[in-house]
Structures are given as structure tokens and as C-alpha cells.
Sequence to fold (340 residues):
Amino acid sequence: MTPKSNILRAGLLALATLATAYAGGEGWTSDFEAAKKQAAAEKKDLLLDFTGSDWCGWCIKLNKEVFQEDVFKTGVKDTLVLVELDFPSDKSKLSKETQAQNAKLGKEFNIRGYPTIMLCDATGKPFAKTGYKSGGPENYLTHLNELIAAREKRDAAFAAAKKATDNAEKAKFLVEGLEVLSNSIVEGYYADVVAEIVELDPADSTGYIKEREEVAAQKEAAAEKEATNQKKVQEFTKTTLGPLMRAKDYDKATATVATFIKENPDLDNETKINISLSSQLPRLVAEGDADAATKFIDELVVAYPNPKFAARADRIKTMVRADIEARAKKDASVRSTPSE
Fold:
């Protein structure tokens, strides 16, 4: 290798290091497997930050208000290994290997919105899931410490289960370990423990399995209700909203959507948001009113609370504004072109 190529390689490595440092900040890594090894060696837990560092407004707020603060860095240095799993718009910030790793982990952890913070033990097994919280680094540290305390209770109960000699007693301790975790965490990552409880305690002396079956039945009923609602929305969109939007009868479309939402109060907030956007954003874009579009999106965030939409809202506003500006430039270019 020539001296020039050595210099080039060193320069590229330095740039890559700087990019990683800028994205995650001091004390963070993007290597999940290395982080697990570090956590095991140092007897720490893992904090996984699934983020969109250059587009997600709530991710940027969390990073600025909490993660960049010295209070946070000092507060977690003895308990957590920090891992940033970034999904930026600018893919050049990450190596191909890191992009592939993050995509794989996003699927494994069933990430639906950003920021999502997963707390895992050193093996990578999750014990809590959270996201943005206001209140600064002190409040966030208190929140994280509460979640870590739950993991400690989980471990103590699981350890007691290993020492127990009676199957029913083993099951009882395993139940105690699961009950300190959220239902979504148990459903997603502890099916093996639930199966062990069933095997150890077929009589279900703790009542835990019956309770889980009741929760599952409620979820199934909710899913059926959601499916019914979605069919109703599809029919409304096809036969009513669609024709009005094609005719650009925006006033009637907006009024019709408002009535539909009022008559169907059990629609989930994401559906209410989607049909509201469908009926009003096209007019605001056509009119070139970026400020009104921003205000409208902000009003939807408040009117129909939904974490996924709240996390995407800033990006949607940016995209709408960019679309409006592009349309304005195109129109100006057409007007300035002399006719033949």
C-alpha cells in the first residue's frame, strides 16, 4: 500500500469515527455485539436507542435534553452500556454493516416508532421499553432506575425459582419475575418462561395463566373490532371521501370526515389522523399554505394522541413544506418562461 493510500485510509477512518461520535455522542457505541460483551464483563445493562438522528424531532429532543447532558452521562456510567441504533435519512452517516445490523435489530425488537428505548440485560433480553419523556436528565434517570429496579426483582425471582425444589413453588417465583415486567415485554420476549410455568404448574395455582388467557381474549376481541372498523373506513373512503377529493370539493370532504369520526367514536386515533390528513392536507398543499399545514398537523397531535404520529409529525411537516416550496419554484419557472 502506498503512502498516499495509507493517508487516504487514515483520513476516511477518522471521518467515520467523527461521524459515529457526532451521531451517538461520547460514551455511546453502535456495535450491538460488542456492547453485549462489554455489559457482561462490566455487569451492566444495555440501553438501546432506536433513533432517527437527523429527521425525528422527538429523537433530537431526547438527545439534546437528556443524552447530551453531563448529569445523564454521569448517572448511567456505572449501570448502562449505551447503544445507538440509528435510522437516519442520510444513509452515508452509517456503514453498510451498521445499516444491516440496525435493520435486523429493528425487526427483532419490533420497532414501530422513534425514539424507542429498549432496556436489556447483558444477554440482550429486554426487560423494559420506553421513549421520550420530558423533565430533563434527572427525571429520565429516575425513570430508568425504576425500570432497572424491576429487572433486579425479575432476576431475584428467577434465581429463587432455580433454587426451589417444588414445581409449584418454582412456577410461583417465575410468575413473580414476570409480574414486574409489562405485558408487552412478556408477550414479546418471555414465551419460554410462560411455557415453563404451564409445565411446572398445570393446575395454575397462581391464576397467572388464566389471567393471561383473559388478556389474550380481550386483545383478540379488540383486533376483531379493529378489523370491522377498517372495513368501514375503507368503504367510506371508496364511496364517499374518494369521490369528493377527486372533485376537489375540500369543504364537503372535511365536513364529511368530521361527521364520520363523530359517528364512529371507537375508531383508533391513527385512523382518525389518517382520514383527517387525507381530507385536508391536499387543499393546504394546493394552496401553498405551509404555515396552515404545520398548524393543522400540530392540532392533530393534540386532538388524537398517538405516539407513532407524534414521532413522525415533524418529518411530515418538513416534507409538506418542501413539497409546497418545490411546487412554488416550478410554478415560478413556468411563469418566467417566455411563450413562443
